[in-house]
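Q: Give me the 3D complex with magnesium ion.
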Amino acid sequence: MMRGSVPPSWKETATMTSEARTAPGTIVLDNIGKHYKMGKTLVNALKEVSVTFEQGSYWAIMGPSGSGKSTLLNILGCLDRLSSGRYLLGGSDVSEMDDDRLSLLRLKRLGFVFQSFNLIPQLSVWKNIELPLYYLGVEEKKSRERAFELAGMVGLEERAHHRPLELSGGQMQRVAVARALANDPDVLLADEPTGNLDTPTGLEILSLLKELNSRGKTVIMVTHEPDVAEHAQNLLHMRDGRIEGIEQRGDNG
Ligand code: ADP
Ligand code: MG
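A: Here is the predicted complex, encoded as structure tokens.
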């Protein structure tokens, strides 16, 4: 499918097998809208957005500044609520959940990586990685083991006792990726994950995301860099709060 073509409609989504539609890492957005009130004016940040992110797919969301990319990612991450439409994660309607259920869902099912890493400077690498498990109430010994295992997976075992400020940018982002994986999420969301990194370091992070995707996680990242978007199989182009086009490139290895 090429840029500018019509995004898949709800009807097309409905033709997916029910197994694919209810896989834990599948997200269906059905005609969602999001507006913000600014005094008396209404800002329509998202309009009529319908798209299905299938479990195990890898997406890049692109578009000019102000086109709604971050709003979309925040909605996907349940950090913000829809104004209209439906959001299904693994077949369950997220739009109808109360705040407590949403927080739990976020902790259990979703992982986040941010441009500015968002690590806690006072905590060591392994403590940062362990944080979601701490909130989930996982037993201390288990969560510590898991944190060290993840530190090793991102190549930072030796740094596990360091503080974030003693690391390079790329290392900090690897800690953030490890933290995002602590709860073994179904979906990994990343807002400009390479935005603060130089090219080779950014490539390391992208290859990490790719590897996680090849292990079955749905990966959705926002980027404004075409070189970065190249790493995803699917491109979602946003403009003025709408989907302008979707490109599906299949597996690009
Ligand atoms: P992008 O990430 O593509 O730059 P955003 O999703 O941040 O775009 O913003 C989309 C539109 O929604 C913009 O017009 C922005 O000003 C507006 N917007 C985003 N967040 C808020 C908010 N919290 N309050 C009011 N308007 C907002
Ligand atoms: Mg943004």
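A quick observation: DSSP finds nine helices and ten strands in the chain.
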